[in-house]
Amino acid sequence: MTSGEKNTTVLHLSTSSGPGGAERMISTLAAALNQGQFRTIVVLFRSGWLQAECEARGVKTCVMPLGGPFNLQWFRTCLRLLRKEQVALIHAHEFSAILCGWVVAMLAGVPLVATVHGKNYFWEKLRRRVTYRLVSRQGTIVAVSKDLKQFICDRVGVQEQRVEVIYNGVAPAQMITDEEVQTCKAELGVSGCYPVLGVVGSLYPVKGHRFLLEAMPEILRRWPKAQLLVIGRGELEVVLKGQVEQLAIGANVQFLGMRQDVPRLLSVLDVFVLPSLSEGLSIALLEAMASGKPVVATRVGGNPELVDHGRTGFLVQSENAKELAANLLKLLSDSGTMQQFGRQAAERVRQHFSMEQMADRYRDLYARSLSDHNSGMSQT
User: How far apart are CA 168 and CA 352, in angstroms?
Assistant: First the structure.
């Protein structure tokens, strides 16, 4: 960028304020792009975790309550913000933000990029399928995995050439010293316990926690001191704690809630587990692999694109506690394989799923979208 040249302003519009994988990706991407050629602003429908995270990363963040899908005042306010900040492109995330972003982009005459982070059952409603088809004709739809792109094309009816795949990426794993690991183990009361398993994710049905809990008694028959750390919060907390009580495994399961020290918690794990029923491209799984942890994950969504089965971890069928337990037992019984899987997992993330690669792909997409838009304007 030459002296005196202005940064191109990109407005990120998010349906949710998190915390969650999509929201963590938004904060990471907005911060990574908020320099050099681009300047980023984040607009949210409500305050919450994402607002605090973006502001902590130095990204300007505005909360504009939507108050309903046809709130004309919201659109007027958003258009004023676009004019004031000289926004050149809108990047919307998930359905409500994509719908609103599409309308504002057309009114303001700026290009739109729309990232779909998961399946979220939007195909069940005709209006949602129609919206995505219309958006794909005016802007660019991004899917975070090849599996999700295929789903959007097959189930929603969007043409393949109108959907790009840009994988989520994560920063290099935070270095945790051996002393810090031992301190964390002592705080959690897991010193001397083997294995220590962990799952990170909101406590929602789609995350499949109940199947991991169902698998725990089999693990405990082999390793009575096994510990499971459940990291996250959500609507199923009471139900899952009830399941733990029913299975009589309370001494071996800890619900840690939402934590800000996930890298530190990952450092104490022997294996990371992801029992989801559906995924786009899991940030939690990426971060665990980046930290050098072998993984056992369900064969859903983008997981097979992340996990190289038999090389960085094992893939199992979803909703199958028996297969989950069997693969955990197989992995945990071979320390050499666990170490090898962990090293290869970290290398796979470094080579294919880094934050820099994700940011570069979006920079390129923004540049192409702006160039195509300007070319179209010059021809009218």
Answer: 10
